[in-house]
Amino acid sequence: MFRILLSLLLLLAPAWAQVRFHPVPQNTLVERLASAPLKNEDRQQRLVEMFAAVGCKAELQPVKHTDLSNVICVLPGTSQDAVIVGGHFDKVDRGKGIVDDWSGASMLPSLYESLDTFQRHHTFIFIGFAAEEKGLVGSRYYVAQMSPEEMAHAKDMINLECLGMNPPEVWASHSDPQLLKALEIIADKMKIPLTGVNVEEVGTADSESFAAAGIPRTTIHSVDQQTLNILHSDNDNLKAIHPELYYESYRLIAGYLVAVDSWFDAPKEPKQMAKRPVLPQTELNPAKQGSE
What angle do CA 236, 238, 241 make, to 5 degrees? Predict the structure, then answer.
């Protein structure tokens, strides 16, 4: 596959000099998005196959209280310090579950592919979580099975949830402050619009399983007051996704992962971070679905 090298020079600090990754073409990303089976068991298998196609033999972690397994793909770094990137592959009965959350789960193999070309300091652990719709079952089980050593080495959890309906958004009120600043800087340097849209009044996400264990987390999504009613409805299908916005989210997330890899190597917080204005934030209201 022909790849174009993306290299963005960031004026942050010498330790973060370049954000480099090989972008996956937009049509490949959309093809993976469109490949979602309807049955959760088939979605699990499809995710395994997509990881295999980019060179990763995924591990299946059987999860208690469900017939599904977490799908885990590891991209080794030069250290044991880990960045966990996740999205859930299961869906509710209604709709095709493209937005919620095949948009996040199917992006994981593309992110693996993008980061695999260059050596990374951190080990990246990509996880397709099982049974999120049953109460964060897969992510809670994964955290419960982590050893004290794995807990100590887990530096961040980045959750991908319901992408591509709008430009990228972040659950700012439930994000680690330094990680949120890093995301703002990367979005600014890549000229990708980013807003804070907080979702605690309408639901939760797999990131919260990690937060409960003291692991810094952030959730990137695209849900606003206008698109909230798409979730768990017959309208959750491929037509709900804007391909250009979905690809924009992918580029931001890939750049963010590379920056996070450098962020934890940096000896101190860059001065530019401390001077960043607070990201404007809005709150979703379950009583106003589909309204302004």
Answer: 90
Which DSSP letter does residue 278 get? Answer: P
| pTM of the shown model | 0.89
Domain ranges, residue 92: 6-284
Residue showing tokens 């250290």? 79
Cis ω for the linkage preceding 236 (within 30 of 0): no
Alpha carbon dihedral 264, 268, 271, 277, in 10-degree steps, equals 50
Q: Which amino acid is at 277?
A: P
How far is the C-alpha of 179 from the C-alpha of 172, rounded, in Å? Answer: 10
Is 266 within a domain? yes
Tell me if 176 is assigned to some domain. yes
Residue 290 lies in a domain: no
pLDDT for res 135 = 97
Higher pLDDT, 179 or 231: 231
DSSP 176-218: -HHHHHHHHHHHHHHT---EEEE-TTT---THHHHHTTT--EE
For residue range 235-249, what is the model confidence (pLDDT) as tens digits? Answer: 999 999 999 999 999
Quickly tell me which residue has 């790849």 as its tokens. Answer: 3
CATH number for the domain harbouring residue 95: 3.40.630.10
The string of DSSP codes covering 9-50 is E-SS-GGG-EEEE-PPPHHHHHHHHHT--SSHHHHHHHHHHH
Strand partners, 195: 169
Alpha-carbon distance values, 29 to 24, 35, 92, 157, 186 (Å)? 7, 10, 23, 22, 21
Distance, in Å, from the CA atom of 115 to the CA atom of 131, rounded to the nearest integer, reads 27
> Do β-strands 69-75 and 59-62 pair in parallel, antiparallel, or remain unpaired?
antiparallel
Number of H helices, E strands in the chain: 10, 11
Q: What is the DSSP code (8-state) at residue 110?
A: H
Q: What's the half-sphere exposure (Cβ side, CA atoms, 13 Å) at 52?
A: 8
